[in-house]
Design a protein that fits this description.
mainly beta; 16-stranded antiparallel beta sheet; 7 helices; 22 strands
């Protein structure tokens, strides 16, 4: 049984809730806490008793000197040095602060996998308007039936005082990422021996929920418009995916279309959901693993285990740095740990267990959400025999030009095959561009036909 913090024990009453049992409500009497003992996002403002987790003092509030919008993001903590290294020979002594999946990686790759643990920097921050709207949401937001939607919220985190797993997962899904953006989500799926090819993927996103003044009633249940085009290799170039991500996926499931340059036609893609394979992933990740988790939650029962201190990927600016080559990243079995940074942070632990009669390749998943951003930073995936199968790491940074705290690289390790897939490499492409002016008319099936090329 995982150890719960004092804070967790004070709020985790009735947290294990299945479909039909979801209870949640607005908490206007607690709004004052977002400027007192809690951060504007709803996390614990204070550090821990040992002093190894500091107080949150605002996160990164301005870019480092010399940064210009459009640049790759320089490391704001260039003088930090590792406090210690966790290896295959000593990981058991740190086991209470490691996930099941992390320990499995040490056991499988004892000679090559390690974690350099750095000083904890609570760098997560968001725009002032997001803080203001989060406070408003704290007094109004509520879950739709069975947790499959959010009502009476806008722009900010909907649930700064999370009462159950659904509220936590919605905080992750609705985290501010800019209104519209363009990014390279380049992907690599090496063989077990480390041989690889690169799939360059360009994506465009438009989040209606984040537009100032827009309410949930205004967005017609469309949370996010998503456009994805493969630019290389040649055999995949020109394949396009268009997704309309819905807020309530029981009321209206995610809608998707694909364009195939060989056929030169657009067709519906009803299977871009749940456990269908992700684009060009060699079956090593599922569609609902995009952004660590997205999509409908109806096939699982969700429960909060609690909150605990863990060593998690954080402030991964070395992995985001301009000019790092693919050869520098790729190693047999796992990414190059020299480029990764881990810190001690408090995380929410959420269990998702497959409902009886439902189908999914994972019978269970354990999600670890950073308390300051609700970003999922780790996942343990179990197969139908309830054996640990895959391990996911979300290496995140503060994109301080926005600001938002979001993954720069996601890595999904398959312990059974010895392979993995990693995505988000933008070290040698244009950096993510946020708050790009886009219109919903750019994300229609008709527009897809005009954008498709042979």
């Amino acid at each position: 049984m995982r150890t719960l913090t004092k804070f967790t024990l004070s709020v985790c009453v009735g947290l294990s809730l299945g479909a039909g049992q979801v209870i949640a409500g607005a908490k206007p009497d607690q709004i004052h806490r977002l400027s007192e003992d809690l951060t504007p996002m709803g996390s614990e403002r204070a550090g821990n008793a040992e002093g190894t987790i500091p107080e949150w003092t605002g996160g990164i509030t301005k870019p480092p000197a010399g940064y210009s919008p459009g640049d790759h993001h320089p490391n704001p903590f260039p003088d930090d040095k590792p406090l210690f290294r966790i290896t295959g020979s000593n990981f058991e002594q740190y086991g209470d602060k490691l996930s099941v999946g992390q320990k499995a990686l040490f056991a499988k790759y004892p000679d090559t996998y390690f974690m350099d643990v750095y000083p904890t920097r609570r760098s997560a921050s968001f725009p002032e308007r997001i803080y203001e709207m989060t406070a408003k949401n704290g007094g109004t937001a509520r879950l739709a039936e069975n947790g499959e939607g959010v009502l009476d919220a806008a722009e900010g985190f909907p649930f700064p005082f999370p009462e159950n797993a659904y509220e936590l997962m919605w905080n992750h899904k609705l985290k501010y990422k800019g209104i519209g953006g363009v990014r390279y989500n380049t992907q690599i799926a090496p063989t077990a021996s480390g041989k690889f090819s690169v799939t360059v993927i360009r994506e465009e996103l438009l989040g209606l929920y984040y537009r100032p003044g827009v309410t949930i009633a205004d967005i017609n249940n469309i949370l996010l418009y998503f456009f994805q085009e493969v630019e290389s290799p040649a055999r995949l170039a020109g394949n396009i995916l268009l997704v309309h991500e819905t807020l309530n996926q029981i009321e209206l499931p995610r809608q998707a279309w694909v364009y195939n340059p060989g056929q030169r036609r657009v067709r519906r893609a009803p299977n871009v959901a749940y456990d269908n394979p992700g684009t060009a992933s060699d079956g090593l990740r599922t569609n609902d693993m995009t952004d660590m988790f997205n999509g409908a939650m109806d096939r699982f029962d969700w429960a909060v285990v609690g909150k605990k201190e863990m060593y998690v990927p954080y402030n991964s600016y070395a992995a985001h740095a301009k000019g790092v080559s693919y050869d520098d990243f790729i190693r047999p079995g796992h990414l190059n740990p020299e480029l990764m940074r881990y810190e001690l942070h408090r995380v929410w632990v959420v269990e998702a267990t497959l409902k009886k009669g439902m189908r999914h390749i994972n019978a269970r998943r354990t999600y670890y959400l950073d308390e300051d951003s609700y970003q999922i930073v780790l996942i343990d995936h179990y197969d139908g025999r309830l054996q640990l199968w895959r391990v996911s790491e979300g290496h995140a940074i503060n994109y301080y030009d926005v600001p938002t705290f979001w993954t720069t690289i996601e890595a999904h390790y398959d312990l059974q095959s010895g392979r993995y897939v990693a995505q988000g490499f933008d070290n040698n492409t244009a950096v993510n561009t946020f708050n790009v002016e886009m219109q919903a008319s750019q994300f229609t099936p008709q527009a897809l036909r005009t954008r498709g090329r042979r």
